[in-house]
Specification:
By secondary structure, the protein is an alpha+beta fold. The chain folds into 2 domains: about 170 residues, Immunoglobulin-like, CATH 2.60.40; about 170 residues, Immunoglobulin-like (Sandwich). Helices cover about 15% and strands about 20% of the residues. The chain has a 5-stranded mixed β-sheet with strand order 2-1-4-8-11, covered by helices on one side. Strands 3-10-9-6 form a 4-stranded mixed β-sheet, covered by helices on one side. Strand 1 and strand 2 form a beta hairpin. It comes from Dacryopinax primogenitus (strain DJM 731).
Amino acid sequence: MFASLLALALAAPFASALLIHDIQVGGPGTLTFSPSNIQASPGDILNFVFQQVNHTATQSTFANPCVPMMDANGNAIGFDSGFMPVPSTQTANFPSYQVTVNATTPLWVFCRQNGHCGKGMVFSVNAPATGNTFDAFQAAAMAQNGTASAPAPPTSASAAPSASDTATPTGMQTVVGAAPTAGASSGSPTDHRVIVGGTNGLVYTPNTVVANPGDTVTFEYHAANHTATQSSFADPCRKLSLTSTTGQVGFDSDFQPVSADATVFPTYTMMVNSTTPIWVYCRQTGHCGKGMVFAVNPPTTGNTYAAFMQNALMLNGTGTTGTTAPTSGVGKNAAAGGGLALLLVTGALSLLL
């Protein structure tokens, strides 16, 4: 589908190019990932598109198909989309979640909705043709019936699996610094929840957080239609992929339309890999120029959050690029997928140049 079109578009100027693999998750009366097993190369992107009713794409291991992948301390380290509720009446604008493949090592994935993994709702990338095959993985999930408990932590850090060796959510791929290792933070990872828009106006609430490597930041979208898009201090209102001189792509949640009467809100989660500042803006027309910006670990002097916001206000959003979306929500629980193709093509070019 879209993967083939992208490959053809980039085949002429480059010897190889990344592919985007679309995976349908669920659907009316269906507890499956479709396709259920694919082959992917490092740099390829897995695009999980969630349909009815409420599913996840959660990384596990072959030995424990229905348990999130864990490190030596028993902390979940694999990717996890979180639950993606989709009304049975929804027919378009399905929410999606992207993961970048880092190696040819097999990836094992399951839906952590109650009972789904035990009914065979699993997925794999680069599963071997013999031995630990996809069929064996699915059979193990069904044999355990989703009741397996988390394994005991390994006795040494060297025995722990490393999620960063296999795949990362796209929100992680361009955060400056090395991937977190076991024990990198002072305690258990923290999830920092940030409200985007809503009754507070054109703001992120809070507008800054201090996060450790291994922490996550979850953007929760309220009315009307916003993004969380990585930029740089020097260019607050432009995608990082358009300004980076080192090939960084930058994460982008894409537009998330939410109606004023919504009671369930879409989210987008990224992982922090270092203490380096991360600069974020809303790329809805005019929002960045009105100060709708956010930062992780901004310095207290020099390139401060206040200076970052002032720069955005001074530019008045005139540096903003990218697709413009409607400024109002389109319905409850709808997370727009439009603009993904443009983002990934831009990301592919910036990675390859």
